[in-house]
Amino acid sequence: MDFRKTRPAKAAAFALAASLLCSPAIAEDGPCEGFNWPLATETGWMQAPDAGAVKSGGEIAEPPAKAVALKLTPTKETSFPVKPSIKAGALADDSFSGFFTIKALPKKAVYQVTLSKHAWIDVIQDGKSAETVAFTGRGECPIVRKSVRFELSAGPVTIMVAGSDVETVKVAIREAQD
Q1: CB-based contacts of 22: which residues, under 8 Å, 6+ apart?
Q2: What is the per-residue burial (b if ≥16 Cβ within 10 Å, else e) of 46-56?
Q3: 88: which of 4, 59, 74, 163 lies 20 to 30 Å off by Cα?
Q4: Distance (Å, rounded) from C-alpha 146 to C-alpha 96?
């Protein structure tokens, strides 16, 4: 047997197998796997180039079927509608924060708010912070950092993001699906 002819074929087969096993779509425990609930929709939204842009303090009509790129301001210059629930002193002086309002959630349900980067999430409804129902996060995932679930009523809601180390964070909100 002439091993010079079989080595390139074996090397190509090995390279193909290795690339398939390391692919995020196939890997069973890659950096973006292992959340407590499915986040495939949010992952797709975060990677899509058509995220809707909103500046801190802005409004949108309803939860979009895509991510929102929220432009944050320096935390020390941010005027929150309600004080963030994060511990006093936990926000770095050089961090960024912001918020936006959704004029109308369509119905009472559990909604999940998902961020692309590390930051604190508060959801404000009827002038107060909504209680967290559940949380999941993966610090090593470069696409989706965390997702928090809240039970919310129909009507307006404000999403507050505090303590980010980047000026723009992608945010996704949708009704929770299990």
Answers
A1: none
A2: beeeebeebeb
A3: 59
A4: 17
Cα of 126 vs its chain's centroid, Å: 24
Instruction: Please name the helix (run of DSSP H) or strand (run of DSSP E) that holds residue 171, with its range, or none.
Output: strand 168-175
pLDDT in tens, 73-104: 999 999 999 999 998 788 999 999 999 999 99
- For residue 146, what are its two tokens? 């965390």
Contact 137, 145 (CB under 8 A): yes
- Please, which residues bridge with residue 164 across strands? 96
Residue type, 158: T
The predicted model gives 35-42 an average pLDDT of 93
Tokens for 85, please give them: 């629930």
At 64 the pLDDT is: 93
